């Protein structure tokens, strides 16, 4: 079976180069056509990929391919080779690529919903989250830099903690399903997944297959609690408040927002955020039955 393999060679520690993944797929009966997500040929390869698309990389590469293929009827297999792998984790994909590839023949198709943020002059889909505050600031500060390293998650948590310590309240208004949130906020994240950034579990109830957003926000009064939590996020729950929603209105008032891993100027107009009605479908190995 022919498959399109999109691979980010800079993801994670580099333990999964393209030739190794090609051999794995061939051993399981697939004929992969490889394209680097870092190459000039990516745009052309996305014009007419095979029905089954395999994405090997971290959250940036996976989200890029998912957004590009949304609404086109392709089935996607994710091989998580990045540092955080929040999208794969949200779908229960925690095995190494070789185990996932071995289970693709009997895998089930699972829906993955896609969010959309609409402004007056642009519209952009997202897989992870839209937000304002320290995470958007961390994306701006990173500038698309370091992607390798076994301790990249830890380093990014430390950097985020430094940003939270100095952060000013965001200049923004937030309306959740018609109800305005009136308090000073340090962070706003409108999420499609439970985790964001360096494996931060901000919305544990979030389901990437349902039709709801999960809105998480940090009141300015909870700064110290957030700093303490960022020292060891696995030890206890996040201090951020959260609620499920169908529709969110965010007025950035000129501040910086992030849409997945891209930082954008939010402008002055209200942004409308919701879940797209049609999901993409991801193959999830069934495991031992």
From TrEMBL:
Source organism, top-level taxon: Bacteria
Pfam families for the chain: DAGK_cat, YegS_C
Protein name per the record: DAGKc domain-containing protein
A GO term, aspect molecular function: kinase activity
Residues of the DAGKc domain: 1-121
SMART domains: DAGKc
Keyword terms: ATP-binding, Kinase, Nucleotide-binding, Transferase
SUPFAM superfamilies referenced in this protein's UniProt entry, alphabetically: NAD kinase/diacylglycerol kinase-like
């Amino acid at each position: 079976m022919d498959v399109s393999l999109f691979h980010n060679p800079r993801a994670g520690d580099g333990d999964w180069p393209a030739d190794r993944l090609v051999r794995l797929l061939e051993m399981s009966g697939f004929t992969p056509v490889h394209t680097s997500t870092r190459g000039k040929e990516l745009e052309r390869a996305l014009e007419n990929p095979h029905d089954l698309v395999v994405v090997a990389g971290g959250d940036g590469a996976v989200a890029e391919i998912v957004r590009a293929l949304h609404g086109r009827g392709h089935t996607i297999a994710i091989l998580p080779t990045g540092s955080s792998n929040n999208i794969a984790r949200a779908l229960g994909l925690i095995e190494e690529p070789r185990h996932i590839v071995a289970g693709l023949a009997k895998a089930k198709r699972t829906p993955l919903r896609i969010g959309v943020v609409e402004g007056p002059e642009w519209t952009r889909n997202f897989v992870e989250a839209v937000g304002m505050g320290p995470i958007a600031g961390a994306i701006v500060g990173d500038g698309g830099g370091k992607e390798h390293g076994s301790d990249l998650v830890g380093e990014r948590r430390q950097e985020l903690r430094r940003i939270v310590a100095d952060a000013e309240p965001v200049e923004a208004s937030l309306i959740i399903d018609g109800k305005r949130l009136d308090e000073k906020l340090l962070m706003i994240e409108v999420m499609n997944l439970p985790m964001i950034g360096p494996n931060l579990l901000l919305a544990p109830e979030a389901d990437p297959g349902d039709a709801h957003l999960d809105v998480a926000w940090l009141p300015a009064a909870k700064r110290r609690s957030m700093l303490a939590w960022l020292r060891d996020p696995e030890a206890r729950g996040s201090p951020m408040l959260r609620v499920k929603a169908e529709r969110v209105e965010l007025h950035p008032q000129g501040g910086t927002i992030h849409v997945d891993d891209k930082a954008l100027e939010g402008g002055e107009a209200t942004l409308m955020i919701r879940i797209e009605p049609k999901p993409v479908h991801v193959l999830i190995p069934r495991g031992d039955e």
